[in-house]
């Protein structure tokens, strides 16, 4: 392994002599195709338009590739049933790959939208659309599609917006002037923000006029605040144009357009022959010098790289092999996937300096697995460092789970992992610093909850729902968090929620079912644990749905799920039962936090209703997070009547569960469970 690394570093060093345009980062930002069946009428199977569309799609297989990746074709006569289509590829896609992408997109689009007269699909490499009306040379900005990279800008916001706007405006000007074959531009920013340089591209369908291309891209730029505000990486699409903005170089060539082919050289003239003879000796001498110098430089460079590799291996290999090789893993990820996280390693001395040697003044909080400290790197970046305690029984599992999970997950509502550190018995995780701490600091504080109007609380509910939906259905793996609670929801400067603490998460491949799983290691927090999980170790995505429902009700009521809504004696109802009874008796307004003096009452009551559906005793009757997201976004979705919520009294929890006593705030239903012995 050591020799393999040496060889790798040697070739990396040699490649420094290769022109930079050959070393562009490979674009791995893949996304699933997005099919949009435009709601503008349907056709019948035996109609003239259906036949024309089928012939058009079939004709794609006989097309030859084009140099500019743009195809516009039609099928049928002028009777009004003619089928029109446009296909367009990203500039760097090879000709054959482009045509193959468009052919696949066309076949799949007609299968996904079998009756729609108009439809469009975006793949990573290409776009394809068809219509029953002419679409050639016409600007179309509906529908739209956007993707974000999951990392928001937290500092230098004004400078970031200025650099982004300047780059996109410059690329727009180049794309608009691209001519009838290719309206495309790419390039990087002239300035940087926080040591970061930015890269972008802009593209229109080449059949647009300059004015329509300009208008289309301006429409897209103006859509940024509503779809991607503050996002560092973004991609935006509509049928007639698209643009992209990243912090890494995702394209292959430096120039905005490929260089023209070299001109044909004229035949040598007598004068040129004479000049060649005069300079021949000089050229030979230059070649000899180059032949001597380059090998010497390469050998020296190889020696430097070899020393660097050996020193690095000596410092890290022993510790890394000892700690990582023996760590247990919760989930179904292969062990060799840990090797892909080497780039996240952070030096321990840097973390000591950043946290002032883990000073108590820098401590943000303490949990069952260690303490969290605020730190500042030498270049000014603020971080949060979780230092796992050495005597933690589950520290190894949590440590490995968080690295494997967060290194692969990218979503705006999940906390971002910056790096990790292993030094002897020290295990540290480095996260982005979230300014406003966790949600429980606000909703359970009589003074701070005044800062949370309904608009902010509704944004929190929606953000957590989107984050859970990503974990359950949209990420590379299917992930059950198992410890969703107010203290694990962090709030950024704009009070956007970010789900944190993935140490107890369970992971499954996308092909594995998550309907019913059992574990003898029950971990979580009383008050948020679904009854089937707390009592029998059975868990599924519905376990997280239950926790989400508890969280929704806590956000709206401002109360913890540990006792009654108005009383504090031993006979008081638990929060969920109190809210459900109030809903049944039509006095539900009484449970709303008194500090919520503004906001739509119908919207608040609908969220309570959704929360009650999520905490029903039977897991089968709880909605999935996909259904919850639909409930939150669409008032046309009729909500069913919720059944009585689950209530797990502490006496029925197995007595052989041990619990952590290091939490910041402890109550009868806020105890973190660590482990249940096998039955």
TrEMBL record:
<keyword id="KW-0472">Membrane</keyword>
<dbReference type="Pfam" id="PF07714">
    <property type="entry name" value="PK_Tyr_Ser-Thr"/>
</dbReference>
<feature type="domain" description="Gnk2-homologous">
    <location>
        <begin position="141"/>
        <end position="250"/>
    </location>
</feature>
<dbReference type="InterPro" id="IPR000719">
    <property type="entry name" value="Prot_kinase_dom"/>
</dbReference>
<feature type="domain" description="Protein kinase">
    <location>
        <begin position="358"/>
        <end position="638"/>
    </location>
</feature>
<dbReference type="InterPro" id="IPR001245">
    <property type="entry name" value="Ser-Thr/Tyr_kinase_cat_dom"/>
</dbReference>
<dbReference type="InterPro" id="IPR011009">
    <property type="entry name" value="Kinase-like_dom_sf"/>
</dbReference>
<dbReference type="Pfam" id="PF01657">
    <property type="entry name" value="Stress-antifung"/>
</dbReference>
<feature type="signal peptide">
    <location>
        <begin position="1"/>
        <end position="24"/>
    </location>
</feature>
<dbReference type="InterPro" id="IPR017441">
    <property type="entry name" value="Protein_kinase_ATP_BS"/>
</dbReference>
<keyword id="KW-0067">ATP-binding</keyword>
<keyword id="KW-0732">Signal</keyword>
<keyword id="KW-1133">Transmembrane helix</keyword>
<keyword id="KW-0325">Glycoprotein</keyword>
<dbReference type="InterPro" id="IPR002902">
    <property type="entry name" value="GNK2"/>
</dbReference>
<keyword id="KW-0723">Serine/threonine-protein kinase</keyword>
<dbReference type="GO" id="GO:0005524">
    <property type="term" value="F:ATP binding"/>
</dbReference>
<feature type="binding site">
    <location>
        <position position="386"/>
    </location>
    <ligand>
        <name>ATP</name>
    </ligand>
</feature>
<keyword id="KW-0418">Kinase</keyword>
<dbReference type="InterPro" id="IPR038408">
    <property type="entry name" value="GNK2_sf"/>
</dbReference>
<dbReference type="GO" id="GO:0009737">
    <property type="term" value="P:response to abscisic acid"/>
</dbReference>
<dbReference type="GO" id="GO:0004674">
    <property type="term" value="F:protein serine/threonine kinase activity"/>
</dbReference>
<keyword id="KW-0808">Transferase</keyword>
<dbReference type="GO" id="GO:0005886">
    <property type="term" value="C:plasma membrane"/>
</dbReference>
<dbReference type="GO" id="GO:0042742">
    <property type="term" value="P:defense response to bacterium"/>
</dbReference>
<keyword id="KW-0597">Phosphoprotein</keyword>
<keyword id="KW-0677">Repeat</keyword>
<feature type="domain" description="Gnk2-homologous">
    <location>
        <begin position="31"/>
        <end position="135"/>
    </location>
</feature>
<keyword id="KW-0547">Nucleotide-binding</keyword>
<keyword id="KW-0675">Receptor</keyword>
<protein>
    <recommendedName>
        <fullName>Cysteine-rich receptor-like protein kinase 29</fullName>
    </recommendedName>
</protein>
<dbReference type="InterPro" id="IPR008271">
    <property type="entry name" value="Ser/Thr_kinase_AS"/>
</dbReference>
<feature type="transmembrane region" description="Helical">
    <location>
        <begin position="288"/>
        <end position="310"/>
    </location>
</feature>
<keyword id="KW-0812">Transmembrane</keyword>
